[in-house]
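Students often ask why we bother encoding 3D structure as a string. The short answer is that it lets us treat folding as translation between two languages. Here is a chain of 287 residues written in the first language.
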Amino acid sequence: MPDFLTPFHYDYMLRAIWVSALVGGVCGFLSSFITLKGWSLMGDALSHAVVPGVALAHLLKLPFALGAFVAGLLASGAMALIKAKSRIREDASIGIVFTSFFALGLLLISLNPAGVDRKTIIFGNLLGIPDKEVWQLVIISAVTLLVVGLKWRDLMLFCFDPNQARTIGLRTGLLHLTLLTLLSATAVAALQTVGAILVVAMLITPGATAYLLTDRFGVMLWLSAGLGIVTSVTGAYASYFFNGATGGCIVTLQTLIFLGAFLFAPKHGLLSARRRARANAEATAAS
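And here it is in the second language, the structure alphabet:
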């Protein structure tokens, strides 16, 4: 068998590749809305805030995903409450809540170190994910994709201009809650693959890259999802040969592609902008 086909000979690698593709695609889809809404810090917060839910779920013998999802919703509610009932700015309330939840999670894990593997939560365990959690991940991903598919136009308008969405009769409060719920659910799914530390990268980087490559949201949506899938599959495949962390390979590849778009994107890349500025300066000088 050729060396480049060796990973496909192992069941755990095949599982890692298709699971990472699923998670990467879902994160990519949602990443477009997060980028448009400016919720990058919110994604970071929720990816860390689910940790105490995971610890409690293990202590109470409940499903991993259930505890993480409930913790994500509680964190979202706490951020909204602090913002609505105090003078504290949103970025400060997000920072307070996610660090508090993350610290609580680490405390719970340290009090019961035999109940849950700290490295699995923080760094993920894609190569060793059990069947039960694979099915949880598939269900979360399917529901998220279904909701996004049915409501993507409403969510797009809400993210782009909430006032306009409210004017035409959309229930912006419900859309806000829907997007937070989807973000929490997707953070749970990605947590099981790349861990709490790298979840935020999978939720932000594909959308940010696509945002530099196109001005049309429909194209951005599919481009972001495609980037999520391709980088996840390639990163999982490459991790076998590098003998490195799967999540690290995936996120590093996403970052390299983002840097490429940042520099060379036809319209919004740094070098393209400099060329246009130089051309405009020369045209101005000539006139």
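Translate back mentally: The radius of gyration is 20 Å. Keep this in mind for the problem set.
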